[in-house]
Write a structure and sequence with these properties.
This protein has 180 residues and is an alpha+beta fold. The protein has a domain at 28-148: Electron Transport, Fmn-binding Protein, Chain A (Pnp Oxidase, Chain A, Roll). Helices cover 21% and strands 31% of the residues. It has 4 helices and 7 strands, in the order H-H-H-E-E-E-E-H-E-E-E. It has a 7-stranded antiparallel beta sheet, covered by helices on one side. The longest helix has 11 residues, at 15-25. It starts with a helix and ends in a 35-residue tail after the last strand. The mean pLDDT is 92.
């Protein structure tokens, strides 16, 4: 662990607490409870590293269950049509280290994942997702329940009309009608 973490924990007298939590909650793979929670989510936040070395954070959403637990060490998810910049997917192609944050704002509860990711346009799971352009697979390095103490309570109202649905055409985003 980096020196700055050690110094901050010492400054705030949390070394024993932090070390105990780390030994209890940080795991190398998903337990069944993690899998159930992750696959029930309809959104999460994805961090990647850009070509300049800056972390970036993106909201990723879909229908509940759009992130699949392939096994206890692997997650898979679709990349849907976006703004055409492919920032997250391009970042993953360049630097495979990612982080994911899954949140339930109603309970509250959250799970954090660190791992390595790959992007493929030929993945066999592509056919499982209506309108997916790519599949991202994440090999989990570590997973842990993250303190939900400061989560605000929100209630899910509706799924975005732009989330691809089977047997229903996805509307074109208004901004995509702009001529370049």
């Amino acid at each position: 662990m980096g020196l700055s973490f050690v110094l901050l924990k010492a400054d705030f007298a949390t070394t024993n607490l932090a070390d105990a939590l780390d030994s209890i909650i940080v795991l190398p793979e998903m337990a069944a409870a993690h899998q159930g929670f992750i696959t029930s989510r309809d959104m999460f936040f994805l961090t990647t590293i850009d070509h300049r070395g800056f972390p970036t954070c993106s909201y990723k959403g879909g229908n509940s269950g759009f992130v699949k637990a392939v096994d206890s060490k692997t997650l898979a998810l679709p990349s849907y049509d976006g703004n055409g910049m492919f920032l997250s997917m391009g970042n993953i192609k360049q630097n495979t280290k990612i982080s994911m944050l899954f949140i339930d704002f109603e309970t509250p509860h959250r799970v954090r994942i660190h791992g390595t990711a790959t992007v493929s346009k030929d993945d066999p799971l592509l056919s499982d997702y209506n309108e997916a352009e790519l599949i991202v697979r994440v090999e989990i390095t570590e997973i842990f329940v993250n303190c939900p103490r400061y989560l605000h309570q929100y209630t899910h109202k509706e799924t975005s009309k732009y989330v691809p649905q089977k047997d229903c055409p996805t509307p074109l985003a208004h901004w995509k009608r702009i001529e370049p």
